[in-house]
Design goal:
This protein is of the alpha+beta class. Helix content is 31%, strand content 13%. Helix 5 (189-200) links the parallel strand 4 (161-165) and strand 5 (206-210).
Length: 478
């Protein structure tokens, strides 16, 4: 593998997965999947508006089409295996893809059905940020999608002190009402401070910060500490502002090296306290104030669209907490895998060291990715899966439309996928991945997962786009 490289200039970008680079009109995104579950299920208007994904972006490429919303015919023909073999033979054999693992599934087939196309689908591959698909699935299978994460304040050891208790909410912000951070509907320090000042009724001089909800190291063993300064991740602590960002309005800006202290300082300023110190809340302390994160489903959508590593790690720890495991890197990885296994997914070959995919030591099979995505997109065969996993689909970036696919699918071999491919991306040094859904020319919704290892992402990513675009042009029955 080798370390992650810094981002060069140019249209491809860097070798590592970053957040939202450019946004564009995505009104179309509900159309390609509307036949499965209707436009309302995919629209997620609150999250989309808060993410700012409605602003047009200047581009030399054809705009994302805006077809009339309508259902995909449930009787649309299914591609044949021989047809897919013919269509994908060329794109999937590109030498730029190195070692390619992949799978294509019919979204309406019962779970466990044979893939329509497959190559090395049971081989554990270095995945990059498609790891977030598994974190999302485990979170939605373990928590209620309407649950929220609370940041609370309780009395301190002296009458003039309080304890700010982190609840694992990465969205907490010191921005005032009317100013938006990168998170949808974030919890606000100002709201919390007003509750506490009213409840205490006297001057507060000291704020203690309690980060005891999570355990273990703040950075994973295989992470590069330099990734904090470049904005890929922050030290993982249960108390932070804006995912640890130093500028809460910039998705990929630098992160703080001490997010808990920054949060404590912001709260102390809001209540007029002079001192900030680490501390621990006493057991069974009364609550002086509390603010809550967006719903879990909204955090999942944001995490996938922006490919935000901090949010992914926060969600993985919530899985561990909900399953009474250890909320550390190791414990969260163990519980994410256990949640998927308990739900009936085959986890053979799965190796997790984090919840975001920043670790080059992760290994995931495309068979597992395909199964999770098929559950999220199917209706008739897996109604329980759909009920819980739907935010995975609504959070997927749209080719040429927004999120981490805003500037992808731009050449002649891939441009047909713009607006009809929805997929999670993944990029590390020597590893590139793309996993999502696409509607073919007959109106059949297909699930795909591809991971390329051993070549430069600058070379591999356009070839992965070309494979997904080939599926969008596919009738593939001969």
């Amino acid at each position: 593998m080798g370390r992650r490289h810094r981002r060069p200039s140019g249209p491809i970008g860097g070798w590592r997965e970053r957040g939202t680079r450019r946004v564009a009109v995505i009104a179309v995104v509900v159309a390609v999947l509307a036949g499965l579950f209707g436009a309302v299920a995919l629209a997620s208007p609150t999250t989309r508006a808060q993410l700012g994904l409605g602003a047009p972006a200047a581009s030399a490429y054809p705009p994302v089409p805006i077809p009339e919303l309508g259902p995909l015919a449930p009787t649309a023909p299914v591609p044949t295996r021989s047809g897919l073999d013919k269509v994908l033979a060329g794109p999937a054999s590109a030498p730029e893809l190195g070692n390619l693992s992949g799978v294509v599934l019919d979204s309406s087939a019962p779970r466990g059905s044979a893939p329509l196309w497959q190559r090395g689908q049971n081989e554990g591959m270095v995945p990059g940020s498609v790891t977030k698909l598994l974190t999302a699935a485990a979170t939605l299978l373990s928590l209620n999608p309407t649950d929220r994460l609370a940041t609370t304040v309780v009395p301190g050891p002296t009458p003039d002190s309080v304890v700010l208790v982190g609840g694992g909410d990465p969205s907490l912000t010191a921005l005032p009402v009317g100013k938006n951070s990168v998170y949808p509907e974030p919890a606000r320090i100002d709201d919390l401070a007003e509750q506490v000042k009213k409840a205490v009724g006297r001057p507060i001089t000291t704020v203690y910060t309690d980060t005891s909800l999570w355990t273990g190291p703040e950075l994973a063993r295989s992470w590069d500490p330099a990734d904090v300064g470049t904005g890929d991740v922050a030290p993982m602590t249960a108390l932070m502002l804006d995912g640890g960002r130093t500028d809460p309005t910039i998705q990929d800006g630098p992160r703080s090296d001490d997010p808990a202290a920054a949060a404590g300082k912001a709260f102390a300023d809001a209540v007029g306290a002079q001192n900030v110190e680490p501390g621990r809340a006493a057991a069974n302390s009364p609550t002086l104030g509390s603010v809550s994160s967006p719903p879990i489903a909204s955090l999942i959508e944001y995490m996938l669209t922006a490919s935000d590593n901090v949010t992914a790690e926060a969600m993985a720890r919530q899985v561990a907490i909900s399953r009474q495991g250890d909320p550390s890197f190791d414990g969260a990885a163990k519980e994410v895998s256990a949640a998927l296994s308990q739900a009936g997914y085959a986890t053979s070959g799965l190796v997790l060291n984090d919840g975001s995919g920043l670790s080059p030591d992760n290994r995931i099979t495309t068979s597992l990715l395909g199964s999770v995505l098929a559950s999220a997109s199917a209706v008739s065969q897996n109604p329980n899966d759909v009920q819980y996993l739907r935010p995975i689909l609504t959070g997927l970036p749209v080719a040429g439309g927004g999120g981490t696919l805003a500037d992808r699918f731009t050449d002649g071999r891939s441009i047909a996928g713009r607006g009809v491919v929805r997929a999670k991306t993944g990029t590390l040094s020597g590893a590139s991945s793309l996993a999502g859904v696409v509607s073919d020319v007959d109106g059949r919704l297909l699930v795909f997962a591809f991971i390329s290892n051993g070549t430069s992402p600058a070379d591999a990513r356009p070839k992965l786009d070309a494979i997904a675009a080939a599926l969008s042009r596919c009738g593939c029955r001969s």
